[in-house]
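[Q] Does anyone have a clean C-alpha cell version of this?
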Amino acid sequence: MADYINIRGQNIEVVASDPANPTQGQIWYNSTSNTLKGQAFQAAGWATGNNMNTARNALGGVGVQTAALAFGGFDATARTGATEEYDGTSWATSPGSMSNARYVLAGAGTQTAGLAFGGTHPPEQSATESYNGSTWTSANSLPTQKSTLGGCGTQTAALAFGGNPGTGRVATTEEYDGTNWTAVNSLNTATTEMGSAGTQTAALSFGGETATGLTGATEEYNGTSWVTSPGSMNTARRTLGSTVAGTQTAALGFSGNLDPGISSATEEYDGTSWTSVNPFNTTRTSLAGAGTVSAGLAFGGSIPPRTGATEEYSPAGPVTVTITAS
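[A] Here you go.
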C-alpha cells in the first residue's frame, strides 16, 4: 500500500490542537482528541436545531445565532406575548412576557436589549416595548398603528417601515432614538410582510407584497432616504424570514408565501444582487429570523400547522471535519 506522503507529497502532521489556519485538503492527527481531521469545503445550507418550547407563527425575532430572542406571535389558540431565548443550542422560556400580546409585529436589538413594535390584536397596534433580558417595559408608541411591518436596528436606534394600518399598505418610515419615534422619508413603494436587515442608517427592505402583488424588490435606506436597489430577489414572496442582524451588504432571505404555496428558497444579498443558495429544510411561512449571513437563524412559522422548528444557517466556505472509517 502506498504511503500518504507518496500520494500527496506531504506527511500527516501530528498536533496537540487543530491548526489555526488550515488549507483546503490539509489533513492532520489531533493527539489530544485522538482524531484524524481535515479541512474541507462545505456548501451553504441549513442544519436542524432544537425546537422552540411554544410553536407559533407571525412572531418577532432579533439577536444573533447564539443569542436570539423570540417574542409574540400566534400560538395554537390565540395571540401570545410569550418570550423565548436561544443560546445556540436550546430555547428557554423567559419569565418576562410582553404586556401587549400581539402578532405580525416587528423588532430590533439584541437578546438582552430588544425592542418590539407594531403588530395586531387585532386591531393594528402602535405599542412599543423594550426588553432588558428578563422583563418587558412599555415605551412611547409608533406614530402610526400598523402590522406586518419591517424593522431593524438597535434598542436605542431602531427603524420601522411599511406595513398595514388596517386600511391598506403604507410606505411610512419611523426612526426611534430610545425614547421617541419620528416620521422620516417613506419607502418608494408601499409594502407589507417584507424581510428586513441592517441598522437605522443602513437598512434593507426586501420582498413582501405591494398593491400589484408579490414582489422581490429591494430598497436600501441611508439614514435619510430609500433607494431602490437594482438587485431584485429571484423568488418574489411575502411573510419570509430574514437575518435582521445582517447588514445592508450582507443579508439573507428565506422561505415565505408564494400565493399559492410556500417557498423553500434561500437567497443571499451582497449589496448589489441576490444569489440563490441551498433551500430551506422545513418550508414554512410567517416565520422569524435572527443572526447574520455567516450565522443565520430561523424559527417558528406555519407549515401548516404552526411550528417551533429551528434551523441554523452556515454559508459556503472551508470547514474542519473529523475523518472516520465510514
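[Q] Thanks! Anything notable?
[A] The chain is about 0% helix and 40% strand.
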